[in-house]
Amino acid sequence: KHHRSREVRKKAAFWLGQKNDPRALEAIADILKN
Known about the structure:
The protein is mainly α. The protein has helices at 6-17, 22-33. Helices cover 71% and strands 0% of the residues.
C-alpha cells in the first residue's frame, strides 16, 4: 500500500483482486488513490 515501487503496488492490486473479499476491494481502492 505504501511501497515506493509502483510495480510492487501493481502486483499487490492484482493479487488482491483475485480475492472475493470486501476488504481486498477497499485495499485496491486505497492503492489506486495513492
